[in-house]
Design brief:
Blueprint (H helix, E strand, L loop, with lengths): L13 E4 L9 H9 L16 E5 L21 E3 L2 E4 L4 E3 L2 H11 L4 H10 L10 H12 L2 E2 L1 H6 L9 E2 L1 H9 L7 H5 L8 E2 L4 E2 L3 H11 L1 E2 L1 H6 L6 E2 L2 H11 L1 E2 L3 H6 L3 E2 L2 H11 L6 H9 L9 H10 L1 E4 L4 H24 L1 H13 L11 E3 L5 E4 L8
Bound molecules: zinc ion (7 copies).
InterPro entries: Znf-C2H2_ZNF598/HEL2, ZNF598/HEL2, Znf_C2H2_type, Znf_RING
Keywords: Metal-binding, Zinc, Zinc-finger
Protein name: RING-type domain-containing protein
Length: about 400
C-alpha cells in the first residue's frame, strides 16, 4: 500500500468516507474535521456527509459501502449490528479497536480536572458537548487556552492538546518557545506559527501560509519567471503596480491599467505593445506594417478564450478598407461594453487573470488581442483592436 492521505499526506491506513465515496482521506483527519472543526464536508468534493464509514484502507480491496441508507437507522453510541457507531463524528466503524482509538482521540474532557479527579479518586468527569464548551470551561475554570491552530492542525488527542495562559499562548504562536512548549522547541522543531505579515494572521504551518499567500496576495509574474522558486509577495494589486512601475515597463494607458498586469520586461516590448495596441496616431500604412509583424502566436486568457469565437472577426487580407473599419468599429463597441462589465467584476477576476498571465510568454503578451495564423490567408481581430481609434 503506497496510498497516502489527501489531507495530512501520511500513509493511508484507515480511511473514512461518506456517500460520495471519496476514499482518499485518513480517519484521523476526517474525525478531526468533523469533531473539532464541525466540518462534515468531504475534503475532495465538498459534499456534506451526515454519516461516514471507517474501515482499513486496502486499495482495491477496501471495504465498500455502496448504499449508506442500509446502515443501521437512528444509531446510538457503541455497537450497532456488525458495526460500532461513534456519535461525535457520526461514523460507523467495522473495527472495534480503531473505533476506541478515534473515540479516545475525540473525547472532550478537561485534562486539568481529569488529573485532579484521578488524584483524589473522585469520578465526576463532566462530558462536554462540543469543543467550544470545553474551551469555555478551560477559560472560566482554569484561565487556560488551547491553541486553535494546533487544535485544527495537530494530530493528537484533544486531551493531549497543550494548555496555555494568555501570555504563554502569545509566545507559543509567535516563537514557539513558551514554558509549555519547552522541550519541543529546544529540539529545534517548532518555531511558532508562521505569520502573514500583511494580515498579521498566523497559520498552522508553511503549507497553510503558502495557500493563504497565493490566494490572498500577489506575486510579480515577471520577477518570478526570472527567479523561479523565489516568492516575493505584494499585499494587494496597488502595491504590485508600484513595483511594476519601478522595476519593469508598465503600460500607462488607462484601459491597460484597468485590465491590470499589462507590464513588460523590456522597453522594446512595451514599445511593440504601444504600436499594436495604442497606435491611433499612426498612418494607415504604418499600422498595416505593424500588423504584419506577428506571424504565429496565440493568446490564452481563459476568460476571453471561451467567447473569442463569438466576438472576434475574421478578415481576408484583401478586404476593402471600408469593411475593415466597419468591423473595427463593431469591435470597438464590444470592447467598450466589455470593459465596463469587466470593471465591475475586476476584483473577482484578479486571481484567474493572474494565474493565466503567468503562463503567457512575455513576447506573446503584447499581441494578445490579435491572432494571426497564415499571413496569406486570414487574421483575426478581437475587441481590443478598438483602441486603434
Ligand atoms: Zn490524514
Ligand atoms: Zn466526496
Ligand atoms: Zn477543568
Ligand atoms: Zn499552536
Ligand atoms: Zn495575508
Ligand atoms: Zn517584478
Ligand atoms: Zn497598453
Amino acid at each position: 500500500m503506497d496510498d497516502s492521505c489527501a489531507v495530512c499526506a501520511e500513509a493511508l491506513e484507515w480511511v473514512a468516507y461518506g456517500a460520495c465515496a471519496h476514499r482518499d482521506v485518513c480517519s484521523t483527519c476526517v474525525a478531526r474535521l468533523r469533531c473539532i472543526c464541525d466540518d462534515r464536508r468531504c475534503c475532495i468534493c465538498k459534499t456534506e456527509s451526515s454519516i461516514v464509514f471507517v474501515t482499513k484502507a486496502l486499495g482495491d480491496y477496501t471495504r465498500i459501502i455502496n448504499d449508506f441508507l442500509l446502515l443501521p437507522p437512528e444509531p446510538k453510541e457503541g455497537r450497532m449490528g456488525s458495526y460500532w457507531y461513534h456519535e461525535d463524528t457520526q461514523a460507523f466503524f467495522d473495527d472495534v479497536d480503531h473505533y476506541k482509538m478515534i473515540k479516545a482521540m475525540c473525547r472532550l474532557s478537561c485534562s486539568v480536572c481529569d488529573k485532579e479527579e484521578s488524584n483524589d479518586g473522585s469520578k465526576r468527569r463532566g462530558k462536554f458537548r462540543n469543543i467550544n464548551q470545553l474551551k469555555g470551561h478551560l477559560f472560566h475554570q482554569h484561565k487556560l487556552h488551547m491553541c486553535s491552530l494546533c487544535l485544527e492542525g495537530r494530530k493528537v488527542f484533544i486531551c493531549e492538546q497543550k494548555l496555555y495562559s494568555r501570555a504563554q499562548l502569545n509566545q507559543h504562536i509567535s516563537t514557539g518557545d513558551s514554558e509549555v512548549d519547552g522541550s519541543e522547541s529546544e529540539r529545534g522543531g517548532f518555531m511558532g506559527h508562521p505569520m502573514c505579515e500583511f494580515c498579521k494572521t498566523p497559520f498552522y504551518g508553511d503549507n497553510e501560509l503558502y495557500t493563504h499567500m497565493s490566494t490572498e496576495h500577489y506575486t510579480c509574474h515577471l520577477c518570478q519567471r526570472q527567479h523561479p522558486g523565489q516568492y516575493e509577495y505584494y499585499k494587494n494589486y496597488d502595491d504590485l503596480e508600484i513595483h511594476f512601475r519601478r522595476d519593469h515597463f508598465l503600460c500607462d494607458d488607462e484601459g491597460c491599467l484597468a485590465k491590470k498586469f499589462i507590464v513588460f520586461q523590456t522597453e522594446a516590448e512595451l514599445k511593440r505593445h504601444n504600436t499594436i495596441e495604442h497606435a491611433g496616431h499612426m498612418s494607415r500604412s504604418q499600422r498595416n506594417a505593424a500588423l504584419q509583424i506577428p506571424t504565429s502566436f496565440r493568446y490564452r486568457r481563459s476568460s476571453e478564450q471561451d467567447n473569442r469565437q463569438g466576438r472576434g472577426r475574421t478578415f481576408r487580407r484583401d478586404q476593402s478598407e471600408n469593411q475593415l473599419s466597419i468591423a473595427i468599429q463593431a469591435s470597438l463597441e464590444t470592447a467598450q461594453s466589455e470593459s465596463t462589465s469587466r470593471d465591475r467584476s475586476s476584483s473577482a477576476q484578479v486571481i484567474s487573470d493572474r494565474v493565466d498571465l503567468s503562463d503567457i510568454d512575455p513576447i506573446v503578451q503584447p499581441f494578445e488581442s490579435l491572432t494571426a495564423t497564415d499571413p496569406e490567408t486570414t487574421f483575426e481581430i478581437s475587441s481590443s483592436l478598438g483602441e486603434f481609434f
